[in-house]
Amino acid sequence: MTESDVTHPLHGRTPLTCPRDVTPPAGFVSQELHDPFEAHMGPLFEQINADGSRVFAFIADERHLRADGSVHEGMMMTFADAFLGGAAWRGSGGKPCVTMSLQASFLADAKQGDVIECRTKVEKQTRSVMFVSASFTVKGEPVMTATSLWKVLGER
Q1: Which of 10-14, 44-48, 70-74, 138-142 has the lowest mean pLDDT?
Q2: Neighbour tally for 114: CB within 10 Å
Q3: What is the CATH number of domain 21-152?
Q4: Of 12-21, 132-141, 147-156, minimum mean pLDDT range
Protein backbone atom coordinates (compact mmCIF):
# COMPACT_ATOMS: atom_id res chain seq x y z
CA MET A 1 0.00 0.00 0.00
CA THR A 2 1.36 3.39 -0.92
CA GLU A 3 0.72 6.69 0.83
CA SER A 4 -1.59 7.77 -1.98
CA ASP A 5 -3.73 4.62 -1.49
CA VAL A 6 -4.76 5.71 2.02
CA THR A 7 -8.02 7.62 2.37
CA HIS A 8 -8.12 10.00 5.32
CA PRO A 9 -11.01 9.29 7.74
CA LEU A 10 -11.88 13.00 7.86
CA HIS A 11 -12.10 13.43 4.09
CA GLY A 12 -15.68 14.00 3.14
CA ARG A 13 -16.07 16.43 6.05
CA THR A 14 -16.01 20.13 5.31
CA PRO A 15 -12.45 21.44 5.83
CA LEU A 16 -12.01 24.25 8.33
CA THR A 17 -11.28 27.75 7.11
CA CYS A 18 -7.86 29.26 7.86
CA PRO A 19 -7.74 32.87 9.09
CA ARG A 20 -5.40 33.77 6.22
CA ASP A 21 -5.76 33.31 2.50
CA VAL A 22 -2.20 32.62 1.38
CA THR A 23 -1.04 31.65 -2.10
CA PRO A 24 0.81 28.31 -1.92
CA PRO A 25 4.54 28.31 -2.71
CA ALA A 26 5.37 27.23 -6.27
CA GLY A 27 4.71 23.51 -6.72
CA PHE A 28 2.62 23.20 -3.53
CA VAL A 29 -1.12 22.92 -2.89
CA SER A 30 -3.07 23.89 0.22
CA GLN A 31 -3.92 21.02 2.54
CA GLU A 32 -7.44 20.44 3.76
CA LEU A 33 -7.30 21.06 7.51
CA HIS A 34 -9.75 19.44 9.91
CA ASP A 35 -7.92 20.06 13.19
CA PRO A 36 -9.08 23.42 14.63
CA PHE A 37 -5.65 24.38 16.02
CA GLU A 38 -3.84 23.57 12.77
CA ALA A 39 -6.49 25.49 10.80
CA HIS A 40 -5.96 28.50 13.10
CA MET A 41 -2.17 28.38 12.51
CA GLY A 42 -2.45 27.59 8.78
CA PRO A 43 -2.66 27.39 5.93
CA LEU A 44 -0.33 24.44 5.50
CA PHE A 45 0.88 23.21 2.13
CA GLU A 46 1.94 19.94 0.50
CA GLN A 47 3.87 18.90 -2.59
CA ILE A 48 3.78 15.32 -3.88
CA ASN A 49 6.78 14.54 -6.05
CA ALA A 50 6.86 12.16 -9.03
CA ASP A 51 8.52 9.48 -6.85
CA GLY A 52 5.65 9.71 -4.32
CA SER A 53 7.72 11.54 -1.70
CA ARG A 54 6.07 14.47 0.05
CA VAL A 55 7.28 17.89 1.13
CA PHE A 56 5.21 19.98 3.53
CA ALA A 57 5.44 23.72 4.10
CA PHE A 58 4.07 26.79 5.78
CA ILE A 59 4.85 30.46 5.21
CA ALA A 60 5.79 32.23 8.44
CA ASP A 61 3.70 35.30 9.23
CA GLU A 62 3.41 37.56 12.28
CA ARG A 63 1.19 35.01 14.11
CA HIS A 64 4.10 32.57 14.18
CA LEU A 65 6.78 34.90 15.62
CA ARG A 66 8.54 35.46 18.92
CA ALA A 67 9.11 39.00 20.14
CA ASP A 68 12.51 39.08 18.41
CA GLY A 69 10.93 38.46 14.98
CA SER A 70 11.99 34.85 14.51
CA VAL A 71 9.57 31.93 14.20
CA HIS A 72 8.44 30.68 17.61
CA GLU A 73 9.59 27.21 18.61
CA GLY A 74 5.98 26.38 19.52
CA MET A 75 4.93 26.98 15.92
CA MET A 76 7.75 24.79 14.69
CA MET A 77 6.61 22.03 17.08
CA THR A 78 2.99 22.44 15.91
CA PHE A 79 4.18 22.11 12.32
CA ALA A 80 6.28 19.07 13.27
CA ASP A 81 3.38 17.39 15.07
CA ALA A 82 1.04 17.92 12.12
CA PHE A 83 3.33 16.52 9.47
CA LEU A 84 5.13 13.78 11.40
CA GLY A 85 1.67 12.63 12.47
CA GLY A 86 0.55 12.58 8.85
CA ALA A 87 3.56 10.42 7.96
CA ALA A 88 2.76 8.04 10.84
CA TRP A 89 -0.86 7.83 9.73
CA ARG A 90 0.08 7.10 6.11
CA GLY A 91 2.75 4.60 7.23
CA SER A 92 0.22 2.75 9.40
CA GLY A 93 -2.06 2.28 6.41
CA GLY A 94 -4.49 4.96 7.56
CA LYS A 95 -4.98 3.84 11.14
CA PRO A 96 -5.43 6.65 13.67
CA CYS A 97 -2.17 7.56 15.47
CA VAL A 98 -1.48 9.79 18.47
CA THR A 99 1.75 11.45 19.57
CA MET A 100 3.70 9.51 22.20
CA SER A 101 6.80 11.70 22.07
CA LEU A 102 8.24 14.43 19.90
CA GLN A 103 11.78 15.77 20.23
CA ALA A 104 13.25 18.63 18.25
CA SER A 105 16.60 20.27 17.78
CA PHE A 106 16.50 23.90 16.70
CA LEU A 107 19.43 24.63 14.40
CA ALA A 108 18.73 28.14 13.07
CA ASP A 109 16.02 30.79 13.16
CA ALA A 110 13.39 31.19 10.48
CA LYS A 111 11.94 34.66 9.87
CA GLN A 112 8.65 36.19 8.76
CA GLY A 113 8.05 35.46 5.08
CA ASP A 114 10.22 32.34 5.06
CA VAL A 115 8.83 29.17 3.49
CA ILE A 116 9.63 26.45 6.02
CA GLU A 117 9.68 23.02 4.37
CA CYS A 118 9.46 19.64 6.08
CA ARG A 119 10.55 16.24 4.77
CA THR A 120 9.43 13.24 6.82
CA LYS A 121 10.63 9.65 6.95
CA VAL A 122 9.13 6.61 8.64
CA GLU A 123 12.25 5.11 10.22
CA LYS A 124 10.63 1.98 11.65
CA GLN A 125 7.20 0.64 12.32
CA THR A 126 5.79 -2.08 14.49
CA ARG A 127 2.15 -3.09 14.68
CA SER A 128 1.53 -0.53 17.46
CA VAL A 129 4.27 2.14 17.19
CA MET A 130 5.53 4.30 14.34
CA PHE A 131 9.02 5.89 14.50
CA VAL A 132 9.13 9.03 12.34
CA SER A 133 11.85 11.63 11.72
CA ALA A 134 11.88 14.90 9.82
CA SER A 135 14.15 17.64 8.59
CA PHE A 136 13.03 21.27 8.27
CA THR A 137 14.67 23.74 5.93
CA VAL A 138 14.45 27.31 4.67
CA LYS A 139 15.90 27.79 1.17
CA GLY A 140 17.63 24.41 1.54
CA GLU A 141 19.33 25.36 4.83
CA PRO A 142 18.49 23.28 7.92
CA VAL A 143 16.53 25.03 10.68
CA MET A 144 15.26 22.06 12.73
CA THR A 145 15.28 18.27 13.01
CA ALA A 146 12.70 16.16 14.82
CA THR A 147 12.11 12.56 15.87
CA SER A 148 8.86 11.13 17.13
CA LEU A 149 6.99 8.06 18.32
CA TRP A 150 3.33 7.50 17.44
CA LYS A 151 0.90 5.04 19.00
CA VAL A 152 -1.26 3.28 16.42
CA LEU A 153 -4.66 3.27 18.11
CA GLY A 154 -6.28 -0.12 18.59
CA GLU A 155 -3.01 -2.02 18.13
CA ARG A 156 -1.01 -3.83 20.82
Answers
A1: 10-14
A2: 20
A3: 3.10.129.10
A4: 12-21
